[in-house]
Amino acid sequence: MSQPEGEFAFPRYVQEAVGHDHKFLTQSLQIAGWDKIAVDQEISAEQEKNLFMSMQVAGYLANQHRGKKTPLTKKGREYHALYRQIFEHMVQRNLGLIYKMVSYSHAYLPNMQDLEAEAFYVLFNAVRNFNPWKGFRFSTYACNAIRNACWQMAGKYARSLQQRQTVAVGEESKLYDPNIGEDNPRDLIEVFMSRATCLNETEKHVLKERYLTGRVKTLREIGSKMGISKERVRQIQNAAILKVQEVVTHSDY
User: Fold this and answer.
1) How far apart are CA 8 and CA 17, in angstroms?
2) Percent of the chain with pLDDT strictly greater than 90
3) pLDDT of the residue at 99
4) Burial of 182 by CB count in 10 Å (0-12 exposed, 13-18 middle, 19+ buried)?
5) What Cα–Cα distance (Å) separates residue 69 from each residue in 59, 73, 74?
6) Other C-beta atoms within 10 Å of 29: how many?
7) 116-151 burial string, b = 16+ CB within 10 Å, else e?
8) Any idea what DSSP says for residue 107?
9) Phi and psi (nearest 5°) for 7?
10) CB 33, CB 150: distance < 8 Å
11) Among 10, 18, 54, 71, which residue has the least CB neighbours within 10 Å?
């Protein structure tokens, strides 16, 4: 189905929107108080439901008024404009969900702006595709979507670090290159040192000595201090970082 010209694509129509008419639309807008509702004003579940139903039906009705010489007839453009207005209103109304979910999420990326940008994109799609006829609040639907996006990005970041493994550099076999700059595992490990309960004290000590003392110490240096071989230090280090990666990619952490 081709889309009319415009900044916002039409929603993926839910089955319930099909067949509704202008009367249904005006009644839903009246119940929602569309003529006087402000973006920062608290609304009830019923108002929210009617706003989303109005948006979906406005998009559906716009699609029914195709023009022969233009994408939409005059009436179609009016419905499309209403769809866009409600869409923008619902996005603005729910922007706080982005900052709430990003701050609550334990997912970590060097550039949190990337995470927020992804959350904005997910929010737009959530507003566009939300089905108000299913009976739950939009915040439940959107928060789950944003939360999952945060974890997917964190998982991709963790896997990208793993792919930068180096093999047998002199006496070392380093799991990560310490000179990656922004992708240095120091930051990732520092965050999880304070959060991850999956690491035992020995693993925490090895990671701290390896990455968090101002320079990347060699396996031999750490082994000498602990009274173990460098190979044993390597085993402890690799096991610990794999645990950290599992925590990053686990959605319930």
Assistant:
1) 18
2) 35
3) 80
4) exposed
5) 20, 9, 12
6) 21
7) bebbeebbebbbbebbbeeeeebeebbbebbbebbb
8) -
9) -70, -35
10) no
11) 18
Of the chain, the end-to-end C-alpha distance in Å amounts to 40
Q: What is the pTM of this model?
A: 0.62
Residue 167's CB is within 10 A of a number of other CB atoms, namely 6
CATH number of 177-249: 1.10.10.10
Residue 203's pLDDT is what?
Answer: 85
| pLDDT tens per residue across span 191-224 | 555 555 677 888 888 888 876 766 667 888 899 9
Better-predicted residue by pLDDT, 68 or 11: 68
Q: Which residues pair with 169 in a beta bridge?
A: 172
Cα distance between residue 239 and residue 233, in whole Å: 10
Decide: residue 162, CB within 10 A, 0-12 exposed, 13-18 middle, 19+ buried.
middle
Percent helix, strand, coil in the chain, to 5, is 65, 0, 35
What 3 state SS string does 216-235 have? CCCHHHHHHHHCCCHHHHHH
Residues of the chain with CATH 1.10.10.10: 177-249
